[in-house]
Every structure is written in C-alpha cells, then in structure tokens.
Amino acid sequence: MIGVADLSRRFFLECDSSLNQTRSMRRFWNHTPHLQQHTNVAPDLSVIGWREWLSFPDLGIPCIKAKIDTGARSSSLHAFDIEEFRRGKTTWLRFLVLPLQRSKDSRVLVEAPLVEYRIVRSSSGHQTCRPVIRTLIHCGDRCWETEITLSSRDEMGFRMLLGRQAIAQRFIVDSSRSFVAGKPKSYR
Question: pTM to 2 decimals?
Fold first, then answer.
C-alpha cells in the first residue's frame, strides 16, 4: 500500500506539470482505487464549463447563455416588467426576458406560476426580495426541474446565473472550460 506522503508527493508533482490539470487528476484518481471507495462522487455526473448554453422549454426560451456559479446558492434569470396576476386560485407572473446578450430585439414574453417570494443576499451582503418560479431546464443531454429567482441582471455580464442548488448531484464544473455541453438542440 502506498503511504499518504507518497500519494501527496505524486499528486503535487502531476498537478505542478504544465499538462492539463484535469488529465493529471484523472490519472492520479485511476491509480488510487483505495481512495475512490471513500468518496461521495457519483460516476454519472456530467462535466460542464464555467459558462454554458441552457434552454427553458416551458418558458419558450430556446437558448440563453448562463454563468455557472458554484458560489451562488440559487439560480437567477434576468427578467423585467414583472407583473402578478391570478389564474383561478393560483398567482402567476408575467414578465419579459431578453435571452440574447446585447440584443433588445429578442424579447420573450413569459408566464409562470409564482412559487414564493424569497430573500436573496448578494455577494456584497445586499438583500432583496425576489419572486421564485419553478421550471424545466435543458443543459446538454440533461433535463431537470429547478427553482429560479427573477431579478434585474442589467448590470451583470450574463442574463442567467445557474447556482449550486440547480447543479448539485448532476454536474461537475471544470472552471477552465466553456460551453462543454454545447448549444441546445432547438437552437443549433
């Protein structure tokens, strides 16, 4: 059996090389099966980059560029002209989304049931009360339902922020890569 000091030395030598760190980690991992049994990493997790193309079929949004943010707990979609209305006994939201950056022409009118209002704290500590919707997301070949807060992201670089609750138990994020999952099929 290899000692911890030997494993650590081998690991740091491999990571210190100019080779791709991901390949080095994979090689290290494949040569240490006794460590693999002590992890909670599921073998069926897909790898995504720090930014990806998503689609929201239930909302009529075929393609939107998202920043994958493991530091953010919740996901956020840039929405404006948000208005509440009733449909039967359920409260719904009607809002506009601009899915393409630097484009005011591609407005999508969306209607979705309101889940709740939630207090969200920004990285600077500022708190806001945001409406929350629940919808289906497509990323690569994966499709799942998640909650998304609606907010004004005019000043932000991305119209969509995908937080860690949405990606937990589904993906591993490779921060050195982008658009690993590819564009949604409906937009290719």
Answer: 0.73
